[in-house]
Amino acid sequence: MGTLPNYDELPRRAGLPASWGVWGPDGSDVFGCLNLLTPERVVAAARLVQRGAVFALNWKMRLPDPPLFDRQPFTHEVTGGPGSTSHDDVLHGWNTQSSSQWDGFRHIRNHAAMADEPGTGHYGGVPDDEHGMHHWARRGIVGRAVLADVGRWREQVGRPLQYDQPDPIEADELGECLAAQGTELHEGDVLLVRTGWLGWYEQQPADVRTRLAQTQHLVSPGLRSGEHLAEVLWNLHIAAIGCDNPAVEVWPPGALSTPEHEAEVRADRRRLHEIFTHTLLLPMLGLPLGEMWDLEALADDCAADGRYECLFTSAPLHLEAGVASPPNALAIK
Ligand code: UVW
C-alpha cells in the first residue's frame, strides 16, 4: 500500500482520473480509500492513546436547525404513555444528512462517467444501489487521524476565515497549517479539517440559520473547489477526510469562478468537477467525505497539548444501500 499512484498516474475513465482500478478489478471493491486502513495501521493508531481523552464528533442531531440544503427536520416520537413500562424512539422523516455525516460514494454521481459507461462508469463498476453504507458499517473505520485546525491557524496568521462568505482555503494551506502545528500526515490517515464554521453557526440567530438552510442562500468557507483540490487530496493518500463545514469544499459551487466559467460548466454537467469537487472525490476517487463534524473540543485539546494526532474510530449505520450516515466517530488521545 506504500506505492499508490499519484493523481496524474491514475487510470482514467471518461477522461477523468478514477482510483477504482487501484484497489482491485472492476466490480470487486466497495471501499475505495478506506482500503488504506490496514490492520497494521489500526495497531499503530491504537498506540496513540495516552491519556484516555475521548472526543465524540457527532454534532447534536437537531443541528443545524433548520437542516441545510432544504432538507426537512425530523420529528421525534417517544412511544409509550405515562403508564407503560417502556419507551421507544421513532424518528419520522429523518434524513441521514441533516447533521454530522459521512457522504457515501453513491451520494454524488459524475455525469461524464455516467455518459461514457452507463451504469458502471463510476463506483468502480459496482452498481449504484449495491454501493451502500452497509459495506462501511460491516468494515468499521479505524485508524490514525490528524487534525488540521485551519480556522485557528488562519486567525494566527492574521487572515481569519469569513464564515458568512465562500472564503476559500487553498489546498496548499492545509500543508502550511500542518507544518505550523508541527504535524505530519501519513499515508492512510483520516484527515480532520476544522474551519471553525460549526462554532460560528451555533452563535447565529434564528433568522440567519433559516436563511442558511435554503440552498440558494447558503454560503460557507471551505477548501477551494476544482480539480486541483482532488489532485492535492489524492496525493496526500489519505483514507478519508472529515470537516466541520457544510460541504468540505467552499459553498456554493461556482462562487469562486467567473460568471462565464460557471455558466459554461452548468450548461455541461460533464464539467461539474471544475466547480464542485464532490463529483471527483466520491464517485471517481472513492474518498469518503465527512461534513459538519463537531471538532471543537478536540481542537481545543490539541491546541492545549500540541498533539494533533489520535486514534480515530467510526461506526456508520448498517443501512443496506445507504447513501450516507452519521459518522458516530470518536477521536481518542
Ligand atoms: C453536499 O453534497 C454539498 O452537501 P451534502 O453532502 O450535505 O449533500
Helix/sheet category: alpha/beta
Beta fraction: 15-25%
Largest sheet: 9 strands, mixed
- The number of helices is 12
Task: Describe how the helices and strands are arranged.
Blueprint: E1 12-13, E2 16-17, H1 20-23, H2 39-46, E3 54-56, E4 75-78, E5 89-92, E6 101-103, H3 111-116, H4 133-139, E7 141-149, H5 150-156, E8 168-169, H6 171-181, E9 190-194, H7 197-202, H8 206-212, E10 222-223, H9 227-236, E11 240-243, H10 259-267, H11 278-281, E12 289-291, H12 296-305, E13 309-314, E14 324-325, E15 329-332
Parallel strand pairs: 7-9, 8-10, 9-11, 11-12
Antiparallel strand pairs: 1-2, 3-15, 4-5, 6-12, 6-14, 7-13, 13-15
The protein binds acetylphosphate.
For the structure shown, list the relevant keywords.
single chain, alpha/beta, globular, binds acetylphosphate
